[in-house]
Specification:
Helix content is 8%, strand content 34%. It is mainly β and 348 residues long. InterPro entries: GH43_arabinanases, Glyco_hydro_beta-prop_sf.
Length: 348
């Protein structure tokens, strides 16, 4: 005999088995030791764009301001990007403005005390097949490649000025350049283009997972019916550090998102990818169990208790997120203090 269940009961059973609002995966369970113990978010703020602030997290999902929301290093200017080197020291890269000719690098043993390490001034017009480059350096970023024992420093440089009639042509002309270095004091002879495709890219970060290099990019073409991927976060892949890289994937974020930041979950099985909805409107979080996806977008940064699955302080702007040890986290909290959590507003 075949027993037929009403459709509503079947749907309720399926819904119950998955839960109404599942929490993001990747967290450790009671009694399990986290492989990634804590996280640091080095960022700007809406009111003080281009200066260095810290927020921290134990779970990679819920972030609290350090230093009572004040700057942590007055000398720094730029879009914060921190990389840990083979010597165990941390390096941060920045520039005073996009029109400045110099890229500044500082070094720290503890993420608290920073000292000037070097200044690099690229000859942008020496870039092969890019002699039309303008003197603009956007958002320098660092990645240390263990396989080749060298740093790669990337940034974006345009080749067209904007106009009143077409301000977006400036952004569409951005191309990602790079140089290599063993010690961040001496650099390869000339900058080169990282990608061989011919459309705008900015805010590129490189990460290696397994044997594959992933470039997380912002597609900097303005979105239209004919370029629907514009102003989204996309991923390109390569078997080697310098490519060639695949054409970028379909978007893993909505339009008008930038500055991707990738961290592994506490249990090291899941990837959390944050990005900013600009200008300083909100933050998004996409989640996957491997960089090839599929990715889904979590709910958060709404400041409603029963809706948020992740939270960041209000009016933080983009920068970088890195994993740190519990000891480093405790030292940062002891040094700067941590802002106590406040109750989120309840829905009406």
């Amino acid at each position: 005999m075949v027993v037929k269940f009403p459709l509503l009961l079947v749907l309720l059973a399926v819904s119950s088995s998955f839960g109404q609002q599942p929490d993001p995966p990747g967290q450790t369970v009671q009694g399990e030791t986290a492989k990634n113990e804590a996280y640091l978010f080095a960022h700007m703020t809406h009111e003080d764009y281009g200066r260095l602030y810290y927020s921290a997290s134990r779970d990679g999902l819920h972030w609290q301001k350090l230093n009572d929301g004040k700057r942590v290093f007055d000398e720094y200017q730029g879009h914060p990007d921190i990389c840990k080197g083979p010597d165990g020291k941390y390096y941060i890269v920045g520039n005073t403005s996009d029109s400045s000719p110099d890229i500044n690098i500082w070094v720290s043993e503890d993420l608290i005390n920073w000292i000037k390490h070097s200044v690099y001034t690229p000859n942008l017009k020496s870039t092969p097949n890019y002699s039309q480059a303008l003197q603009r350096i956007g958002a320098p970023k660092l990645f240390y490649d263990v396989a080749s024992s060298q740093f790669v420093m990337t940034w974006h440089t345009p080749h067209k000025e904007g106009t009143k009639e077409d301000p977006e042509r400036y952004w569409a002309s951005q191309r990602t350049l790079y140089v290599l270095s063993k010690d961040l004091k001496t650099f390869s002879d000339v900058p080169k283009r990282l990608f061989d495709w011919d459309f705008g890219t900015i805010d590129v970060i490189i990460r290696k997972v397994g044997d594959t290099y992933y470039a997380f990019i912002k597609d900097e073409t303005y979105p239209t019916l004919y370029w629907p991927t514009g102003k989204t976060i996309r991923i390109a892949r390569s078997g080697s550090l310098l490519g060639s890289y695949s054409l970028p994937s379909d978007p893993i974020s909505p339009n008008f998102r930038e500055a991707p930041m990738l961290i592994p979950s506490p249990d090291d099985k899941i990837w959390y990818l944050y990005y900013e909805q600009y200008p300083g409107v909100s933050y998004g979080l996409s989640i996957a169990d491997n960089p090839n996806g599929p990715w889904y977008q979590a709910s958060g940064y709404t400041f409603y208790n029963d809706w948020d699955k992740y939270s960041l302080p209000e009016k933080v702007r983009h920068g970088c997120m890195i994993t740190i040890s519990k000891k480093e986290y405790d030292t940062l909290v002891d040094t700067f203090g941590i802002q106590k959590e406040t109750l989120n507003r309840q829905p009406n």
